[in-house]
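ok, trying the design again with the full structure, not the truncated one.
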């Protein structure tokens, strides 16, 4: 049986806006669309037979006409690629009114749904099955139960769902055991924004490509798609990075810094290890025991770095370097607080949380806690 050239992506969330980015939110929203342009370009340059979009192409069922027009233009620019889309929980089908249903790109762009759960690729002996969300939730006992596959074909399932979720998940739960019993050659998953490796259950390969572009500091690392060839009993996929910017959490020990200017320089030095460092989005957590004379100013530090990085947020969890054991012996309210916290620290399930509470408490005694202190 001949192999199939395939690109598997999911969770582009076109049209979403990340409010905490301020004026940069519009830039990142536009770059979501640029990510989709790169995917279309890959399909054309690599002569991809099948593009799978495993749910949440759009961030909502209702998007601007301008965005819809551009997505349609891009899909129509595909040279030889068939597109199989399932609607996710963010862009569910809605009786012809949702963004996906309004694309109208002809026979080579197929929306997998209840009425049309399968598409056959002529000349490739391959069939692609899938189902879509029709609302924000989809409860299912087995997402493969409605598919009647012929093992003589290369069979691929497109599932926007929650793999090995806790019982009662409202997001199309699917188990590894169900994948193993399904008889499919590949299950293209969407919904979970973290990329998985190419996995295998029985004779079935399956994977999450993750989201195409991160949307917060809980979505770290490179974001992109899986691309390659698949045939019976063989899956040769590689991960292809698509997003230009990364969300990065970085902890920096400022114990040796004596001024806020030195902290700024230490942050710059720490971030220089990242490729295209200026393009990324950073959450910097300052740690360590600082000199008693230093008053760390996160706002000043962030402002000093703002012109050199796309986005940077600074959180100060450092504390003056003091002798806590000596302070705990003082017959004062502050001393009693420290003694109590040190007692809690011994045997604590989450010692870092206790340390952070101790640091914030000490700042409160010194009148340094602000309303939004993190």
């Amino acid at each position: 049986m001949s192999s199939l050239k395939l690109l598997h992506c999911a969770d582009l969330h076109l049209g979403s806006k990340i409010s905490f980015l301020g004026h940069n939110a519009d830039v990142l929203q536009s770059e979501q669309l640029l990510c989709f342009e790169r995917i279309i370009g890959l399909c054309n340059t690599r002569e991809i037979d099948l593009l799978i979009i495993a749910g949440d192409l759009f961030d909502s069922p209702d998007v601007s006409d301008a965005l819809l027009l551009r997505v349609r233009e891009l899909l129509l620019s595909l040279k030889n690629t068939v597109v199989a889309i399932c609607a996710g929980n963010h862009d569910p089908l809605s009786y012809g009114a949702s963004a996906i249903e309004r694309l109208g790109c002809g026979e080579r762009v197929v929306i997998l749904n209840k009425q049309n759960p399968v598409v056959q690729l002529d000349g490739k002996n391959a069939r692609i099955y899938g189902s879509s969300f029709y609302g924000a939730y989809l409860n299912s006992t087995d997402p493969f139960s409605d598919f009647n596959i012929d093992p003589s074909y290369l069979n691929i399932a497109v599932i926007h769902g929650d793999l090995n979720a806790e019982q009662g998940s409202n997001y199309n739960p699917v188990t590894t055991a169900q994948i193993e019993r399904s008889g499919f050659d590949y299950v293209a998953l969407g919904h979970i924004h973290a990329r998985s490796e190419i996995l295998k259950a029985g004779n079935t390969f399956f994977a999450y490509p993750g989201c195409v572009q991160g949307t917060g500091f809980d979505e770290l690392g490179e974001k992109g798609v899986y691309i390659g060839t698949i045939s019976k009993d063989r899956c040769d996929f590689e991960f292809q990075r698509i997003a230009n910017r990364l969300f990065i959490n970085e902890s920096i020990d400022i114990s040796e810094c004596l001024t806020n200017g030195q902290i700024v320089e230490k942050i710059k030095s720490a971030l220089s290890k990242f490729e295209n460092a200026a393009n990324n989005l950073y959450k910097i957590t300052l740690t360590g025991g600082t000199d008693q004379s230093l008053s760390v100013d996160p706002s000043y530090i962030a402002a000093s770095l703002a012109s050199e990085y796309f986005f940077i947020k600074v959180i100060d969890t450092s504390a003056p370097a003091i002798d806590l054991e000596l302070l705990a012996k003082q017959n004062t309210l502050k001393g009693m607080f420290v003694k109590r916290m040190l007692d809690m620290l011994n045997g604590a399930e989450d010692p870092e949380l206790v340390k952070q509470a101790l640091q914030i408490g000490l700042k409160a005694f010194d009148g340094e806690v602000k309303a939004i202190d993190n």
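Keeping the full-length input from now on. The longest strand covers residues 224-231.
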